[in-house]
Fold this sequence. Notes:
Elements: H1 8-23, H2 27-41, H3 45-53, H4 67-74
Helix pairs in contact: 1-2
Amino acid sequence: xxxxxxxxxxxxxxxxxxxxxxxxxxxxxxxxxxxxxxxxxxxxxxxxxxxxxxxxxxxxxxxxxxxxxxxxxxxxx
Length: 77
């Protein structure tokens, strides 16, 4: 296990900024983006892929659903 090189907040900011670019890149570009992300954050490669592919609301905890998240999913309540 490697030591983390960034704070949690910095890793989440980096993840948010890279996610869209990663999602719409070609396979070869994804590999390069993923290599840089893994090197910067210290995450395992498969976990990094999982984080970059996620499309759900990351700001909401699993046990709590905010009204705004539900409105995004279902439209008007």
